[in-house]
Queue: 3 jobs
Job 1
Amino acid sequence: MDTYSVMTMNWVDAKEVLIELLQTAGVPPRHGTIGRIRYVGAGLSNIVFGAEVEYPAGRKQAVVVKLPSDEASDARDVSLKAEAALLGYLCRQELPFRVPRPIAEIQTAMGLGVVQEWVDGMAVDLRPLRFPGGKPWELVAQVAAAVHAIDPAPMRDRLPSYPTWQDHALGFASALQELEEPEADDTNAWVREHLPAPVTSCLLHGDLLGQNLRRSWDGESIAVIDWAEARAGDPAFDLAIVTRGARKPFGTPDGLRRLLDAYNALARAPLGTRQVLLHELILVAHFYVGAVSNYGKGSPHAEQQRRVWQSVLRRASSVDRE
């Protein structure tokens, strides 16, 4: 089946979800109640549509509908329900950023359809030359510190959770035990020598990249979207997801230091370079594993990721010598 046919089928499912949403609210479907449904994008788990629905008295609501993709795993529905529960919890907190409000979970013939509030605004470009004021690390630090200050205890039964920072590091690195590459042995040795303290885990967003940070059109507020990777763990992981082993995070050689300086000025528990490097190191190793799985061992993609892995290993070793 071609892409257009697949999108058309999912468009129909999205409309059925919105009709049921209105019926649940006691609004009979009629012409003009549901605005144009537009395709937003697709990932491994979800196909996403946007629309505007209108309730009586002219109240309008812009929404996002998430439907399962063909590649969605069996864990997809559980993960989406957990994300919805987390968003509901976050909406009850006083936060310095906006989050999408969960609206409904509706079962369709294709699987679970989830409706969330549409968060208007533009994705944030974290390159200094394209970021207002030229200091994107300050925004990442502000959002990360605010997320890490949220009590994860009420959500521990719904989210993937490590009891402590140390458990997170060990759990994240455990998959590397099976690799035959010498870099895996070096990585595991470095991780064991630099384990974080067994500090109680905090809430993590899990994917604080620019596309998940939305600046309002007037520039006055920030929204944080896509909490599908949220968990309780080591706060250094959230920073490593942003710096992700790059030689010049944010396009500057001292990008990691600038991020840490900004974060430590706001966070309850300061972090050091080695703590972020530990998660960077494991992360790029996982990127290599993914490249091997998708393209084959020895492929150009896998070898490129292996060179990145080797580069981060050298950087970690050089930090030890400082």
Job 2
Amino acid sequence: MKNIHLLFPTPILVDNINRQYTQEETDAFIKADYKNDVNNDVTTTNTVLFTRTQNILKEQNLTDIEHFILSKANEYLLSLNVSDKLKLKITRSWFVKSTPGSYGRKHNHPNSLISGVLYLKTFDKCGNLILHKDNTSLFGSIELSFGNINEFNSSIASVPPLDGMLVLFPSTTQHEVAQNTSNEDRYSLSFDIWGDGVIGTSNTMTELTL
């Protein structure tokens, strides 16, 4: 409807690295040491596997991928007209392996500005990225029924993964990974981004040096 406007949308960047991964890059995520949970003593059935390192991009010397992610993160902030001068950096990065039947639980990423995922090896029905809006219902505590689901009344967005696809979103965004119903292992790279610099302004008493 022409008189309806999206007043407070959540900005999501979707792009693609637009190249084949090198053999070195492929070996890095295929041969990585994947675990079931953060705690060695805990086993969670059917959840995705991931590398426990929090700096896999540096450890595996994946400089080109790191530069690509940061360049798109800068584009993301620029498109939002962010005027703060920040030097962005990837503070955490880890590989994720989604085996057939596995899924990722709903969560967000504290102590981070921008979070995202870069898909490394995907298949049809290997598990969409599910993004959640802040308020689960359009009218708060009032639950109404909707006919056609669209951008106005939906509380989730489902993103089918593709090889090379990059998705960036605010780190506060709740998200999960749908179950991998394919017969193949899906691989991806997750990461968090922070910035060094000065945010806010002195005249509004919000200035903060990071």
Job 3
Amino acid sequence: MGWDQELLEVVDAHRTPWATALAEGLMAAGQPTATYVAATGAVLVFAWLFKAWRPVFAALLASVIATGLAEAGKEFIGRPRPPADLALVPADGFAMPSSIGALTAGAAVPLMLMWWRGGSRTGRAMSALLGLGTVLVGVSMVYLGAHWLSDVVAGWLLGAALGVAAFLLLERAPARTERHFRTADD
């Protein structure tokens, strides 16, 4: 934990009002249940508009499983959060792995893979934006002192692995709806 402590001490010595406001805004946006309900609604609309049911379902599945595993992992590992003198926000419970890191990576990776596979510039740009958003949320947790960097990296790895697994699993599943909607001419 030595390098985690040193890194957070450097962050603490270089915090700025604008970065603190940004990090606190990201954290506040992710707190209410309404945020998760709205995000779920948005991805379902996205799935409907772009016929992207499998990647969206993979994102939802991976994020839920990753969050659950991260929460269980915290209890198993029992790693304490950063000390209060280095934290800008109060955080309770254990720290490793970061559940927000797992959730954001689990949700982002299947959609990133979908867009990257499409090969378009827009798809690659959307993929990069999702990746950037995931990194920004995780870094803000470290900046605020709610997590050590290694907690966030462990959460990202957990979420990304589950995101890839869910994407691959659902991409290979048979398309039952296609079979139900075939016409007699097919």
